[in-house]
Amino acid sequence: xxxxxxxxxxxxxxxxxxxxxxxxxxxxxxxxxxxxxxxxxxxxxxxxxxxxxxxxxxxxxxxxxxxxxxxxxxxxxxxxxxxxxxxxxxxxxxxxxxxxxxxxxxxxxxxxxxxxxxxxxxxxxxxxxxxxxxxxxxxxxxxxxxxxxxxxxxxxxxxxxxxxxxxxxxxxxxxxxxxxxxxxxxxxx
Length: 189
Hints:
The chain is built from 6 helices and no strands. The longest helix has about 40 residues, at about 1-40. The protein has one domain. By secondary structure, the protein is mostly helical. α1 (about 1-40) packs antiparallel against α5 (about 135-170). InterPro entries: Tetraspanin/Peripherin.
């Protein structure tokens, strides 16, 4: 009974963290759509270069949404294979973010690698982040913290599901082993 309560709490926590991560992904994607809409409303589109700076944030936002959706479904199913896949996806995302931050910290001239921005949107965004650096820093730390916290929760949930199935398989009631959804003692959220 205690393992079922623990599993339910971990399931709820993982669903909630993935909900927050999904909101972050949706907000990033909506910001990109807004930037694309404001780009398309310009009158001098023939003279401007391709808006390369809009599509990477849109891809990141959609990737956050995809991973959070996968995590939400995985938490609901509580399957060992799915939890492992989700842990692998979130680990790859964390490693990619860590590599990006390391590149930005170690490469002092990273802005020179970016293509020329004829419109000045990059400069406007850089100025906004510079003026609100503390808020931007705390938002980035919270996003990274949510993702890092999802990984151990998913792994602990995977362990509880694995050991719960081992204990469940050793019970003499083999009829309930064939019908796991009918177990009234363990209801997941």
